[in-house]
Specification:
Blueprint: H1 2-20, E1 37-40, E2 45-47, E3 55-61, H2 66-81, E4 87-93, H3 98-108, E5 114-116, H4 122-126, E6 133-137, E7 143-148, H5 156-166
Parallel strand pairs: 3-4, 4-5
Antiparallel strand pairs: 1-2, 1-5, 3-6, 6-7
């Protein structure tokens, strides 16, 4: 009896906190992707919600992360293959120094947008568990895919997946 009398107030408090917005919402596949505005290495501000109409590949990474460094060339190749008017790729640098990302990008010839999240705006909204993590947002702003860990992004499987979302 005592246990249930403590459980009910705790449950009510949790529901009240969620209703008041005190509990942060995390990215959920099938729901609208959490919005963010971040600046890239060229000073351009990118706002996810302003990219509606395009499929958006959102990748969280860092230069100190070996799997992140390994997958970046395949991301660049995928970026080069996709139609620019229907696809966008955003690589969000997390917990790292922009100058390191600049040197890494220059060394590998990376041209895709690299955004800086120095104020830690985006990662809490996505509930990151580690790096790299990748999210695919459809042209309506719905989070369709979540990938934890590295991938060979320019493989036929992923190219076809992106084209399927583009052609929906």
């Amino acid at each position: 009896m005592k246990r249930s009398s403590l459980l009910i107030p705790a449950l009510c408090f949790s529901l009240l906190a969620a209703a008041c917005g005190d509990v942060p919402q995390k990215a959920v596949v099938g729901m609208t992707a959490p919005d963010f505005s971040l600046v890239d290495r060229n000073g351009k501000t990118w706002t996810l919600s302003e990219l509606r109409g395009k499929v958006v590949f959102v990748n969280f990474w860092a230069t100190w992360c070996p799997p992140c460094r390994e997958e970046m060339p395949s991301m660049q190749r995928l970026y080069a293959k996709m139609p620019k008017d229907k696809f966008e790729m955003l690589a969000i640098l997390e917990n790292d120094k922009p100058e390191r990302a600049e040197a890494f990008a220059a060394k590998l010839g990376i041209t895709l947008p690299i955004l800086y999240d120095e104020e830690k705006v985006a990662w809490p909204k996505y509930g990151l568990t580690g790096l790299p993590e990748t999210y695919i947002v459809d042209k309506w702003g719905v989070l369709r895919e979540k990938f934890i860990g590295p991938a060979q992004w320019d493989s036929p499987r992923f190219v076809q997946m992106m084209m399927n979302y583009i052609n929906e």
